[in-house]
């Protein structure tokens, strides 16, 4: 009897999991489907699911009207650059918090995290003015700095939790063996934390890739990443759902593919410490 | 050369003084064991010598040079940790090479030393493995190999055998003693196991609550413990300690008699007792004997196999030439 109950329960939970998964994925699926419809079919009521005339014309129009590859390249530079810069700052920071904590370390960590609770729009005007005065508006370097700063708390937190798992004795052994602080971090700590660092990098690239508030407000044309590319299709000219969907699909495809291939690493990274 | 001198060295964590000022000299080539119950500060003392902790006061001299502020790597000491602390992402070869790589030693010299250490420690076949693929004993040998190649002035061992099983522990104990005889380098060894201390040390330092209770050779400590603590700590099984009327008979507050210094008889003796649990080791038998009027049962050692059983009545006679007497402060009365 116990066996049949557990089979039933399994069925229910599996069904429930699929339902939730589909509900989450549905908007993305709908966007991808819409991108292959004509504008008329896109706004048809009742909505058409599969039996429409598949077309690639939206993609052609989008590529003709705006330069996808320039935006794509900007996204790569911004997410890659901000991740790299973030790591350079966060690895030493997390090292010191994990291995030479002070009485205030926990407070500093909480304080850093609290900056994520601030509504970004609250500092938009001062940030805009600072960027304007420094000539950083619509530059890659300016955006790399902003994205680094907004994601830094998460990078430090994640690395801190990974570093905490590394036994301090191993670093002490390195110190006894004559390693300088630099070699200790470079040859011992970092290689041991590679899985953790990889998850952090992946998550940070995804966050930076999808960041829309600052990238939209601080760029115009030159440094605009794919978020701005999408936004340019929700235009005052009227709603072109099919073209907007095509642009969105093109924008999310790279990160979706990357996420798909690295999902194991990502899940491991995000649940690290919780299930050890 | 590896002479280490501690001059009024003390250590406090915040307001808690874990090591009150203490003096100690470790001579060149000596095998010194710090022994004491857990939390007695023995590991902290070793870490102070290593430079992994900063002293709160006093001076540490290595070969006559003040090394109090010298960073760990510059002290010329090598350390073997309890958890082995091997670099898990490096092969055995790279683990052993690491200190030499940090010292920018020429590659061929590195290889020569690695080969020599691997041969001495039976690691030649394992050089390309990762620490995770080795057994506990092999890992410990890699940790020792990593220490040897630096040719340090002194080795520091922090409870290196406590993660090994009993059989392996005896083997490694011999290997480390053997290593000391061969290298004649100073070794400072921390353990809570008094058997390790007795079997390996030239000089034992008994610690309690950060204080040195006694320093001496194993036999000195065994024969003339300076106080009740050392008397009870050194020796296995423990010395029998008696207070009250029995002690007063010998004009002392506490008297001590080791299990091997009590004679057993079936018809006459100083004390009459009842045999409780007995432990048969083959070579020896230990009896726990309840004596009327004594608070704790006495432990008595008999050589070989003795046909005495639970509940038997026996008579015990202490060998008065081996009786230890202590005063009200717990100090030895000469």
Automatic annotation (TrEMBL), chain A:
Domain ABC transmembrane type-1: 72-262
CDD domains with a match to the protein in the record: TM_PBP2
Membrane topology: Multi-pass membrane protein
Transmembrane segments: 12-33, 72-96, 108-129, 141-163, 184-209, 240-261
Entry-linked InterPro entries: BP-dep_ABC_trans_perm, MetI-like, MetI-like_sf
GO biological process terms on file: transmembrane transport
Taxonomy, superkingdom: Bacteria
Classification via Pfam families: BPD_transp_1 (PF00528)
Key words of the record: Cell membrane, Membrane, Transmembrane, Transmembrane helix, Transport
Subcellular compartments: Cell membrane
GO cellular component: plasma membrane
PANTHER family registered for this protein in UniProt: INNER MEMBRANE ABC TRANSPORTER PERMEASE PROTEIN YCJP, MALTOSE TRANSPORT SYSTEM PERMEASE-RELATED
Family affiliation: Belongs to the binding-protein-dependent transport system permease family.
Protein name: Sorbitol/mannitol transport system permease protein
From TrEMBL, chain B:
Organism: Celeribacter baekdonensis
Source lineage: Bacteria, Pseudomonadati, Pseudomonadota, Alphaproteobacteria, Rhodobacterales
Pfam families per record: ABC_tran, TOBE_2
A GO MF label: ABC-type maltose transporter activity
Protein name from the UniProt record: Multiple sugar transport system ATP-binding protein
Family matches, as Gene3D superfamilies: 2.40.50.100, Nucleic acid-binding proteins, P-loop containing nucleotide triphosphate hydrolases
Keyword 4Fe-4S included in the entry's annotation: no
SUPFAM superfamilies on file: MOP-like, P-loop containing nucleoside triphosphate hydrolases
PANTHER family in UniProt: MALTODEXTRIN IMPORT ATP-BINDING PROTEIN MSMX, MALTOSE_MALTODEXTRIN IMPORT ATP-BINDING PROTEIN MALK
Superkingdom of origin: Bacteria
Annotated InterPro entries: AAA+_ATPase, ABC_transporter-like_ATP-bd, ABC_transporter-like_CS, ABC_transpr_MalK-like, ABC_transpr_MalK/UgpC-like, Mo/tungstate-bd_C_term_dom, NA-bd_OB-fold, P-loop_NTPase
Chain ranges of the ABC transporter domain: 4-234
Keywords: ATP-binding, Nucleotide-binding, Sugar transport, Transport
Family in the record: Belongs to the ABC transporter superfamily.
PROSITE patterns (UniProt xref): ABC_TRANSPORTER_1, ABC_TRANSPORTER_2
GO cellular component, one term: ATP-binding cassette (ABC) transporter complex, substrate-binding subunit-containing
Ion transport listed as a keyword: no
């Amino acid at each position: 009897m116990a066996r049949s109950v557990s089979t039933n329960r399994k069925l229910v939970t599996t069904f429930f999991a699929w339902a939730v998964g589909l509900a989450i994925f549905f908007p993305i699926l709908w966007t991808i489907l819409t991108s292959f419809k004509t504008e008329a079919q896109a706004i048809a009521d009742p909505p058409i699911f599969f039996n429409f005339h598949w077309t690639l014309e939206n993609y052609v129009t989008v590529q003709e009207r705006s330069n996808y590859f320039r935006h794509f390249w900007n996204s790569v530079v911004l997410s890659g650059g901000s991740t790299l810069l973030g790591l350079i700052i966060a690895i030493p920071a997390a090292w010191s918090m994990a291995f030479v904590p002070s009485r205030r370390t926990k407070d500093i960590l909480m304080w850093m995290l609290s900056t994520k609770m601030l509504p970004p729009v609250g500092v938009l005007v001062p940030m805009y003015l600072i960027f304007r005065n420094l000539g950083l508006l619509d530059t890659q370097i300016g955006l790399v700095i902003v994205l680094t700063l907004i994601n830094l708390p998460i990078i430090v937190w994640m690395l801190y939790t990974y570093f905490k798992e590394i036994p301090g004795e191993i670093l002490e052994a390195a110190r006894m063996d004559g390693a300088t602080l630099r070699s200790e971090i470079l040859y011992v700590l970092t290689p041991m934390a590679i899985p953790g660092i990889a998850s952090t990098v992946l998550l940070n690239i995804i966050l930076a890739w999808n960041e829309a508030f600052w990238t939209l407000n601080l760029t115009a044309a030159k440094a605009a990443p794919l978020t701005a590319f999408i936004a340019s299709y929700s235009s005052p000219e009227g709603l072109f759902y099919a073209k907007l969907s095509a642009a969105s699909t093109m924008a999310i495809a790279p990160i979706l593919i990357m996420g798909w291939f690295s999902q194991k690493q990502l899940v491991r990274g995000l649940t690290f410490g919780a299930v050890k | 050369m590896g002479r280490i001198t501690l001059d009024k060295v003390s250590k406090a964590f915040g307001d808690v003084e874990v090591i009150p000022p203490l003096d100690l000299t470790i001579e060149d080539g000596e095998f010194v064991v710090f022994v004491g119950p857990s939390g007695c500060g023995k590991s902290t003392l070793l870490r102070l010598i290593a430079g992994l902790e900063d002293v709160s006061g006093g001076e540490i001299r290595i070969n006559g040079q003040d090394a109090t502020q010298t960073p760990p790597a510059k002290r010329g000491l090598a350390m073997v940790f309890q958890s082995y602390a091997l670099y898990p992402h490096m092969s055995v070869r790279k683990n052993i090479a690491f200190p030499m790589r940090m010292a920018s030693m020429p590659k061929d010299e590195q290889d020569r030393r690695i080969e020599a250490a691997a041969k001495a420690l039976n690691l030649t076949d394992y050089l390309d493995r990762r620490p995770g693929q080795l057994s506990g004993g092999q890992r410990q040998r890699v940790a020792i190999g990593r220490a040897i190649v630096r040719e340090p002035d002194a080795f520091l061992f922090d409870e290196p055998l406590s993660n090994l099983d009993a059989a392996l522990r005896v083997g490694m104990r011999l290997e480390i003693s053997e290593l000391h005889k061969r290298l004649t380098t100073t070794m400072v060894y921390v353990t809570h196991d008094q058997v390790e201390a007795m079997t390996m040390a030239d000089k034992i330092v008994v610690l309690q609550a950060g204080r040195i209770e006694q320093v001496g050779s194993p036999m000195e400590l065994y024969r003339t413990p300076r106080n009740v603590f050392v008397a009870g700590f050194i020796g296995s099984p423990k010395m029998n300690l008696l207070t009250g009327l029995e002690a007063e008979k010998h004009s002392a507050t506490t008297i001590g008699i080791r299990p091997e210094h009590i004679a057993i008889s079936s018809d006459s003796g100083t004390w009459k007792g009842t045999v409780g649990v007995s432990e048969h080791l083959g070579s020896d038998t230990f009896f726990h004997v309840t004596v009327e009027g004594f608070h704790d049962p006495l432990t008595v050692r008999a050589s070989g196999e003795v046909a005495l059983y639970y509940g038997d009545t026996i008579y015990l006679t202490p060998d008065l030439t081996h009786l230890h007497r202590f005063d009200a402060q717990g100090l030895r009365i000469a």
